[in-house]
Amino acid sequence: MRRTLSTDSIRSARRRFFEAGLPPRGLVSDTIAQSWNRCRALGLASDARLDAGPLEQAAVRALRERYEELCRLCRPEMEALYTDAQATGSVVMLTAPDGLILDAMGSADFLDKAARVSLRPGVTWSEDHTGTNAIGTALHDKRAVEVRGAEHYFGAHRVLSCSASPILDGRGRIVGLLDLSGEASVHHVHALGMVRFAVDQIERRLLERELAGREVIRLHADAALLGTHREGVLVFEDHHLVAANRYALDMLGVDWDEVGRCRYSSLFESAQPRGRGVQELRGPGGIAFQAQRDVIPARLPRTARRSAAPSTPTKRIAPLFDDAMRDALQRHARLLDADIPVLLQGETGSGKEVAARELHRRSRRADAPFVAINCAALPENLIESELFGYRPGAFTGARREGATGLLRDADGGVLFLDEIGDMPAALQTRLLRVLQEREITPLGGGRATPVDFAVIAASHRDVAADVESGRFRADLYYRIAQTTLCLPPLREQADLADRITQLWRALGGDDQNMPLAPQTLQHLAALSWPGNMRQLIGALRTLLALGTPGQTITPEDLPANLQPARETGRAMPTRLADGDVPAMEQLQREAMRAALDACHGNVSAAARRLGISRSTLYRKLGADATRTSAGS
Ligand SMILES: Nc1ncnc2c1ncn2[C@@H]1O[C@H](COP(=O)(O)OP(=O)(O)OP(=O)(O)O)[C@@H](O)[C@H]1O
Q1: Model pLDDT for residues 88-102, shown as the tens digit of each residue
Q2: Could you give the CA distance from residue 215 to residue 233 in angstroms, rounded to a whole number?
Q3: Which spans in 127-174 are helix H?
Q4: Which domains, and CATH codes, for the chain?
Q5: How confident is the model over 39-74, as pLDDT tens digits?
Q6: pLDDT recorded at residue 577
Q7: Atom of ligand 1 nearest to the CA of 320
Q8: Could you give the CA distance from residue 169 to residue 192 in angstroms, rounded to a whole number?
Q9: Protein residue closest via CA to atom 5 of ligand 1
């Protein structure tokens, strides 16, 4: 458990360590102190100016292609964290095993701030490169780590508060890392827990790939926690341990090095279990575990294979559009073919990027590039060089060979300007000129090059209102918004129940014979889904992962945050007005109450439903009771 340390003690620790060259002696956690020592031994200067150089979107795209499988595997969890990240002004990031940031999503404001200290795709945050930081230090220590404010080695990173956990495969090899980062001034108390939970889900899916043709033992001290994400999983082949999850190794006190080497008999005192059903196993020193054994056939019929696995592999779904949207897309694709720019307007998660890609697919430019630029995520000082390219030696830190720029990368295809409403004013002027003149002059001079691309812009902001208030240039608005396609929020869609049914089918709910009960469907369709399609798909994926193949999903099976209200008749807040964001503690209390209520006061069952241990639920209930009585 991490100690809570005050800003004062971190300040004193920094003075001792960086100015006096003394050990920080109990003023920061051992994790941080050890990391500072490693960084100093590497000769890193904590006051160095950090400049990761211009963002190379083309290189980032190439990397995402290289790590496509990892990106796909982690996407559902990133999307599930996204809504929270937006609400707490933070961002969720995925990195490659070496700490190279592959993907980032979340609060547009914070993406921008983070990018200013190079916390953005395309930059490596390994410890030897970027000093003590959650990504690099978690990769070094091979466990979840939180690094807040001035605990970062480099002074420039003190504005950040980051929580990260490496993603391990069944043999303990690091395959990637998930990170949730926000402002140091806002302490997101649940960040580390949320990252850990997300990584648990990803590792679980990774491990499932190792099961076919092998013997699996699931174990926990408490039989009630078998089948939850907290269970230990051991995979054996010919009595040898060939894969495991970290929970199992922790329970048995075994290191990852043992996986692939040790035999069943060196792990347990009891004989290897036979048959099905829960049985007791004695581990090292006679510790008792409740265990369940499964032998997974090497080749199963498709439906059987799904039911043998405890959770569903991620399924990438094709975009789903209703008839009206299909018609609208077809019409706008024709406009795009006539080089009329299209503006997509819609709340976050409503599918603007999906619609843009669909327009590209339906357009005459379908075989040419689709270049997406997130105008809110590009740091202002780099945006010009990124978009327009630069000549060799155009500025300090420029690559010797220069760069072509994203606008030229889009030549012949479609340029997608996402979050156009957040484009800095100076750049609006420069972009307008390109759109008028259809040619690009790289930074540092040189000949102008003609370009030919169709433009799709998107924003969750009301860009027309921004024009009225003078925040956005009117002339640029009229150029990019010659036609506007609005993506309605889910709560305004009359046929939301049909949409949910379609999505459920597309995600594999029917294949697994896990129908949604009519009341469940009705309840889900009545929620307001502020995160729109992103939130809905994330929630349905969670339901699929938690459900049991062959069983109907009833309203009681819904996770606490989607439960219908009971006892008090109060609904969980489903429709959040601007500024009406409930505190995390309030949501937690609501969730705990709803879970206890749904389980008729059975704390073990409620904890299972919430995905936390019984002791954690007791502790939280205790803290809650203390707070309530102290406040009354
Ligand atoms: N019509 C659709 N069919 C299936 N999935 C969809 C559809 N629309 C959106 N999604 C899914 O919802 C998620 C969010 O979509 P998308 O990124 O296009 O939204 P957005 O409006 O661009 O969001 P933001 O403004 O936050 O960037 C993605 O996972 C996407 O695959």
Answers
A1: 788 999 999 999 998
A2: 10
A3: 127-130, 134-141
A4: 7-68+89-167+175-183 (3.30.450.40), 213-296 (no CATH), 325-487 (3.40.50.300), 494-631 (no CATH)
A5: 999 999 888 776 655 456 677 777 777 888 898 889
A6: 35
A7: 3
A8: 20
A9: 319
